[in-house]
Each structure stands twice: as structure tokens, then as C-alpha cells.
Design goal:
Length: 569
């Protein structure tokens, strides 16, 4: 058989590949990657290609659907449907439209640092270069490719660079609706979609030119197809699952925790089917083939850059200034700030009912589909365990999957609590109105945060540059440490040239060299992320405070991201 022969050739080739194969052309000069490591991964990919071909060839390549005794069917909370499918589709379209409007408002505001660095690092890189080099954790591969496509189509404008993130953010809304529909009515599913559409946090990341909304979208979609595959075992569901997980890992390499979590869930599902008297072994074989194919595709994508990516991640997140310790007051404060939680009596007033709703929601989701609950919780636990084991710095954005999970729990829990109360009051007919009122109240909580968010850019490098450009007399801005890339980007836009109209520095010797060329009263300093500056270059702070004072602060919605302009004393 041709497929079996091809598989045999691949397996043999994996052990006889020459040491220079696919290495010389792939590894750039100065890369942290090792030829030996790349060769090992290339051999692993070749071997796994052979195993897959042998599996397909020896099994005949025919698809045999599993019987009902091998499947796991999620339960519905309630069978009643307050609204028709046509009405639900119309409302969902309106919710998606509202999500789009909220995500394009003020989309052209100034970039922040993490949006600028991949744009400038990979602006002139070819697609081959992107697939073979990994210089920074800011290179979210899929997003970088889509970003280059958007810039080529519309020009290097803020809205164009952020457009892929906006589209993934909007697309996540109907996917959450479909995911909720697996266990709940159309009304409850519309509630969860509405909460995601108006979520301040999700809008924030949807206007961030990074791969986070793509990660959320593909994780939700992969979870949807995993549950559908376990329910019906249709080939289209498994193909869609493989595609979603492949693009998920292309979006953010940390999505590997999602694939590992799904593999663990699949194993537990097969054991559960076997224990209830069903045919668990055929389900295990099916899932093993699906996860194997997904992993094989991902290995091919990252076969060249994985050693580089591993080293870069280790080096980046071992630096304290890149994040926080997971169980620390700093991390907790950052999470609270990101959630825009009100203080004082409001928190105490909402804490108890929120806890009741959360417990009810988690309980119902577990009873209806433990696979759904585990698929959204387990990846976060695995990622947290990995970060803790290696003592790496963390940021709240690493756990963005908690957001759709929390909104799903809120919608399901509110429906269950309201239903229980109204049944006791003998007024179950009021449930749609009470649930709608609850969803609107939760949605309205986002209004103050959104009003502030739309008013303040993430980091206002553009305004800082224009402010300094408007200064009378001879003024030389000096951007310091984390302000350097962002300031340089917008300085170049207004025609300034580095080391002529402006300077940048990150060390005292560089700073002193600038002072030797120019008088201190001609220099205006620009700083941002004071925590990182304090942790990484504390020697600069006494010098700054001795000769300069704060002139103007440009607020930023990114934590610790205000732009501070310092003038001579």
C-alpha cells in the first residue's frame, strides 16, 4: 500500500537524517537555537509523520462512526425555550453588531509598547523569517502574519494593525453563544453572549494588537467541537477541532496547556464511558488519533523555532519586572485593577449574591457537561502549575480564559438562582424578565470602566511626542528604558531622527554621554512603567530626581503605563 510504504520511508528517514539537513538554511545568525535540538525535533516530526501514515494505511483510512455506547452527550439545564430560533438569531445578530461597534470605537488611539515592538521587529521580515526566528515573546505568530497582511492592505495605521484582534474578539461572541447552547436555552445563551459583547476586559484585549482574542476564540471553538465530537463523532467536528487547536497554538504558544488539558479530559472521558458499561476503548483510539494529528501539525509549525521560543520565554519571564509572583499582593492588586472592581460597600453588597450565583452556575455546568467546565478550567490550572514550577513571572493576561468562563457561570448561575426563587414564589412566568434584568444590571457595570477606557489610550506615546515637539526653544527629549521603543516609533513619525532630535538611554554611562553633549536644561526625559525601571535600573532614579522634576503625565489604561515627561529643575 502506498501510504504504508510512505510511512515506512518516513520512519527510516527519521533515524538516518544527516546532521545538516534543514538546519543551515533555517537557523539565523545569532539565534539562541541549537542545531542539535533542531535536528532532534526534525527527526521527531519525521518519525511521527511515519507513524501517522502507517496508522492511516493499516487502518484502511475509512471512517467508522462510534456507536452511542461510546459517546458522551451533554445534558440541558431545562427543556423550555422562551424564544424561537428565528428571534434568537435576530437578537444574536444585534448583540454581535453591538460588540463590533464597541470594539471599533477609538480604535485609532496611540499604540502601547507591546503593540509597537512586534510591529517594528518584524516589519521587514519575510514569512519564512517569521516561521524560523523567535526573538521576542511579543511575536504571536498568527497575529504577526495577519498584522503584516492588514498593514499591506490598509497601511501602517493603528486601526489596521488592531483589526485582526477586533475581528477575533467579535467572532468570540457567537462562539460563546453556541457553547452555552450545549447546556442551556437560547435565552441563557444570549445572556452569556451579551455579557461578553459588552465586557470591558474583552473590549480592552480586542483593541490590543496581540494574539489574546485569537487565543480565546480558538479555545472556545475547539472546546465546542470537542464536545460536539464526543456527542456525535462526525468527521467534520474532529477536522474543525484539529484546525482550531492548530491556529490556537499558532496564535499563542502557551495554548499548549489547552491541548494537554483536552487530552487529559479525553482520557478521563474514555475511562468514564468504560466504567458506565460503554465502549470506552474505541473512543480512546478516536481521541488519541485526533490529538496525535493536532500535535503533529503543531510540531511542524514550531519545529524550527521551538528551541528558540523555549529559551526566550525562560529568559524573559525570569526577569521580575516582566510580571508578578503568582500568589502575591502585587498580582492580586493588578487583577483587581484590571477587573475595575468598585471599593467599599458596593463590593460587600455584591459579594454574597455573586458567590451564590457562581456556586450555582459551576454546579449546573458540571452536572450538564463536566467536559465543558474542565475544558475551560484545566488549561488555566496547568499553566499556573507550569509557571509556579519554573518560578516564572505572571501577568493577568495569561489567564484570559477565566473571562468567558466567568461570564458563562454568571449567565447559567443567574438563571438557576432566579428560577429557584420564582418557583418558590409561584411566579415562574417572570423568569425571562428577571433574567433579562439581571443581565442588563451586570452589563451596566461596564459603563464607567468603558467611559474611562475610551477616554485614555493604553499608552499615549503620540501625545507625549507632540507635546515635546511643541515646546519652544531647543529641546532634546531623552526616552529612558521601557519608553524607548514607543517614543522612537512616534518620534520617527513626526520626522525626528535618533541621536539628532532625540536620544534614548537605559544606563548611567549612556545618560552621562548625552549630558556631555547637551546642557541639562535642554533635556526633557520621558519614562513609563516605573516599576520596571525601579527593578531593572534603580541607578537611574537618583540622577533623574536630582536634575529633573515631573512636567506632565499622560495617563494610560495599561497598568503602570502612564507616560511621564520630566523637565529640568
Amino acid at each position: 500500500m502506498p501510504v504504508v510504504l510512505l510511512g515506512t520511508i518516513f520512519v527510516i528517514a527519521a533515524f538516518v537524517l544527516p546532521g545538516t539537513w534543514h538546519i543551515d538554511a533555517a537557523i539565523p545568525a545569532g539565534s539562541v537555537s541549537s542545531p542539535d535540538k533542531n535536528l532532534i525535533i526534525a527527526r521527531i516530526c519525521c518519525f511521527l509523520d511515519g507513524v501517522w501514515c502507517l496508522y492511516v494505511g493499516l487502518s484502511g483510512g475509512r471512517w467508522h462512526r462510534l456507536g452511542p455506547e461510546s459517546l458522551i452527550v451533554p445534558k440541558r439545564m431545562d427543556e423550555d425555550e422562551p424564544i424561537s430560533r428565528k428571534t434568537a438569531s435576530l437578537i444574536l445578530m444585534l448583540i454581535v453588531l453591538a460588540a463590533l461597534v464597541l470594539r471599533v470605537l477609538y480604535l485609532n488611539t496611540s499604540f502601547w509598547l507591546d503593540e509597537i515592538t512586534p510591529l517594528t521587529f518584524y516589519r521587514d521580515s519575510s514569512v519564512f523569517g517569521l516561521l524560523t526566528t523567535y526573538f521576542s515573546t511579543n511575536n504571536h505568530l498568527l497575529y504577526t502574519l495577519l498584522e503584516k497582511l492588514a498593514v499591506a492592505s490598509f497601511g501602517e495605521q493603528e486601526w489596521a494593525v488592531r483589526l485582526p484582534s477586533v475581528l477575533f474578539g467579535v467572532a468570540s461572541v457567537p462562539v460563546l453563544y453556541l457553547l452555552t447552547r450545549l447546556i442551556a436555552s437560547r435565552f441563557v445563551a444570549l445572556g452569556s453572549a451579551l455579557l461578553l459583547a459588552v465586557s470591558y476586559q474583552h473590549i480592552f484585549f480586542s483593541q490590543n494588537a496581540r494574539g489574546y482574542t485569537a487565543h480565546v476564540f480558538f479555545t472556545l471553538a475547539a472546546t465546542l467541537f470537542l464536545i460536539r465530537g464526543l456527542k456525535k463523532d462526525k468527521v467534520i467536528h474532529w477536522i474543525c477541532y484539529c484546525a482550531c487547536m492548530f491556529f490556537n497554538l499558532a496564535a499563542i504558544i502557551a495554548s499548549l496547556s489547552v491541548l494537554i488539558a483536552h487530552a487529559l479530559i479525553g482520557t478521563i472521558a474514555a475511562i468514564a464511558v468504560q466504567r458506565r458499561g460503554g465502549a470506552g476503548w474505541p473512543l480512546f483510539i478516536r481521541l488519541a488519533a485526533v490529538f496525535f494529528l493536532t500535535l503533529l501539525l503543531v510540531l511542524h509549525l514550531y519545529s524550527i523555532i521551538f528551541p528558540q521560543a523555549y529559551m526566550v520565554v525562560q529568559e524573559t519571564y525570569r526577569v521580575q519586572s516582566t510580571g508578578f509572583t503568582l500568589f502575591s499582593a502585587e498580582f492580586a492588586n493588578e487583577v483587581i485593577r484590571g477587573l475595575k472592581v468598585a471599593s467599599g460597600p458596593i463590593v460587600l453588597l455584591a459579594a454574597i449574591p455573586a458567590l451564590v450565583i457562581a456556586v450555582a452556575g459551576i454546579r449546573i455546568i458540571y452536572r450538564c457537561s463536566w467536559v465543558l467546565l474542565a475544558a475551560l478550567v484545566l488549561p488555566e490550572l496547568l499553566l499556573a502549575a507550569y509557571l509556579l514550577k519554573l518560578s516564572l513571572a505572571v501577568s493577568p493576561r495569561f489567564f484570559l480564559l477565566a473571562l468567558p468562563l466567568g461570564l458563562l457561570v454568571c449567565a447559567v448561575g443567574l438563571d438557576r438562582v432566579a428560577r429557584s426563587i420564582l418557583i418558590r414564589l409561584h411566579r415562574p412566568n417572570l423568569l425571562p424578565y428577571v433574567f433579562l434584568l439581571g443581565m442588563l444590571c451586570v452589563s451596566l457595570v461596564n459603563i464607567p470602566a468603558l467611559c474611562q477606557y475610551y477616554r485614555i489610550p493604553k499608552q499615549d506615546f503620540r501625545s507625549a511626542v507632540l507635546y515635546l515637539k511643541s515646546k519652544p526653544g531647543l529641546v532634546f527629549p531623552v526616552s529612558i528604558y521601557t519608553a524607548r521603543e514607543g517614543f522612537a516609533y512616534y518620534a520617527n513619525r513626526v520626522g525626528w531622527h535618533e541621536n539628532i532630535e532625540y536620544f534614548d538611554t537605559r544606563t548611567v554611562p549612556d545618560f552621562m554621554a548625552i549630558l556631555q553633549k547637551h546642557k541639562a536644561n535642554q533635556l526633557y526625559l520621558v519614562t513609563t512603567f516605573p516599576r520596571a525601571l525601579h527593578l531593572d535600573h534603580p541607578e537611574l532614579e537618583p540622577l533623574m530626581e536630582k536634575y529633573w522634576i515631573i512636567d506632565k503625565v499622560f495617563p494610560g489604561s495599561i497598568g503602570d503605563g502612564d507616560l511621564t515627561v520630566w523637565k529640568p529643575r
